[in-house]
């Protein structure tokens, strides 16, 4: 598979209109993280690849961290690498932006990852690459309350034409299913709830899939 990002001349045309030509901002990537602010190694290596390709600093901030990294005065893009418009996107990310601006950091906020049209194209390409006619592919997501995030998932399900289950429902479904299903976990990095599956060789995060990892690296490298 090849990333569709390469077929798009500029995935950020609206953002580029407001930036100086040839002057790239540093990146501050917001991820969920694990307890104590732990960032999985696949995310750290991913950020390093983005930094090398962009030629700019790339810092990762975990929402679960209690200690915050000091930020230089360089202009930055604040990039929420979050897949669903839950409370982290609607409440925590704006607070992070406010904190940085109060520190005097020239900060511009990018929409959360799950809202990027280019990201949706990556999802569609992955689905199209797999033969889904037998109905074995299912999207597995974090349990959500009714509201904005739930409506977003409904729209995504319609766009991809695939069944969708929460972690809890998927585990119950697998236990009772007569035929094996192939899960696509809507998680950027492996999380504890799927660790046992990962130990069994099941890909439980999108960064473990080459199409998504390389496609996202290209998108972030293309930010002005």
UniProtKB/TrEMBL annotation:
UniProt keyword annotations, A-Z: Lyase, Metal-binding
The UniProt record lists the keyword Metal-binding: yes
GO MF term list: lyase activity; metal ion binding
Keyword Magnesium attributed: no
Pfam family, one: CbiX
Matches recorded under InterPro entries: CbiX-like
Protein name: Possible DNA mismatch repair proteins, mutS fa
């Amino acid at each position: 598979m090849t990333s569709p990002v390469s077929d798009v001349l500029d995935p950020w045309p609206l953002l580029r209109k407001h930036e100086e030509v040839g002057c790239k901002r540093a990146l501050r990537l917001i991820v969920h993280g694990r307890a104590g602010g732990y960032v999985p190694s696949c995310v750290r290596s991913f950020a390093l690849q983005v930094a090398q390709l962009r030629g700019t600093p790339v810092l990762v901030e975990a929402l679960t961290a209690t200690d915050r990294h000091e930020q230089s005065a360089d202009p930055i893009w604040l990039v929420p690498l979050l897949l669903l418009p839950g409370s982290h996107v609607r409440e925590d990310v704006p607070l992070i932006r406010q904190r940085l601006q109060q520190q005097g950091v020239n900060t511009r906020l990018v929409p959360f990852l799950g809202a990027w049209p280019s990201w949706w194209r990556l999802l569609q390409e992955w689905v199209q690459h797999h033969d889904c006619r037998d109905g074995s592919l299912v999207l597995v997501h974090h349990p959500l309350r009714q509201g904005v995030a739930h409506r977003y998932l409904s729209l995504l399900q319609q766009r991809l034409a695939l069944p969708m289950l929460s972690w809890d429902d998927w585990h119950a479904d697998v236990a009772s299913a007569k035929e094996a299903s192939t899960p696509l976990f809507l998680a950027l990095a492996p999380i504890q709830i799927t660790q046992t599956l990962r130990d069994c060789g099941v890909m439980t995060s999108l960064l473990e899939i080459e199409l998504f990892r390389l496609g996202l690296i290209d998108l972030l490298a293309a930010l002005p």
